[in-house]
């Protein structure tokens, strides 16, 4: 998967790094799966996403201290597994990494090269969250 950091994520990073401003990031981050949109843009916001629902779906918490930050400016996190139970998830487009403050924003979003995906009951859907810092 190849992804983007929307403007709202760029702004959050800029406020944190350059201004040392408290921008209500929250503690840790969350990983979610989405079914729409099919085209990603820099101007998108969290409200533009349609999140997967039902059949045991739940966001994954990405604990702050567990990220790897590499010298080439990339960050990565251990693989996370989503597994539907009692039914299938259809039209899965990809994943997003979001903040957990009172007004969450998208830090990174990726659409799978083979999207959309149908994830059958009991079938694991693996995501390795990561991004390039730009």
What keywords describe this structure?
134 residues; mainly beta; six-stranded antiparallel beta sheet; three-stranded antiparallel beta sheet; 13 strands; 9% helix; 36% strand
Structure description:
- The protein contains one helix and 13 strands.
- It is mainly beta and 134 residues long.
- It has one domain (2-132).
- Strands 1, 2, 3, 4, 9 and 10 form a six-stranded antiparallel beta sheet that branches. The chain has a three-stranded antiparallel beta sheet with strand order 5-6-13, with no helix packed on it. A two-stranded antiparallel ribbon has the order 7-12.
- The radius of gyration is 15 Å and the shape is globular.
- It starts with a strand and ends with a strand.
Shape: globular
Overall mean pLDDT: 91
Instruction: Report the C-alpha radius of gyration, rounded.
Output: 15 Å
What is the H-and-E element order? EHEEEEEEEEEEEE
Largest sheet: 6 strands, antiparallel
Helix-and-strand structural type: mainly beta
Domain count: 1
The count of strands amounts to: 13
**Low confidence ranges:** none
Amino- and carboxy-terminal Cα gap: 17 Å
Which percent range describes the beta-strand content?
Answer: 35-45%
Helix share bin: under 10%
Count of separate DSSP helical elements: 1
Subunit arrangement of the protein: single chain
Secondary structure elements and their pairing?
Layout: E1 2-4, H1 7-18, E2 29-36, E3 50-51, E4 60-62, E5 68-69, E6 74-76, E7 80-82, E8 89-92, E9 94-98, E10 106-111, E11 117-119, E12 125-127, E13 130-132
Antiparallel strand pairs: 1-10, 2-3, 2-4, 2-9, 5-6, 6-13, 7-12, 8-11, 9-10
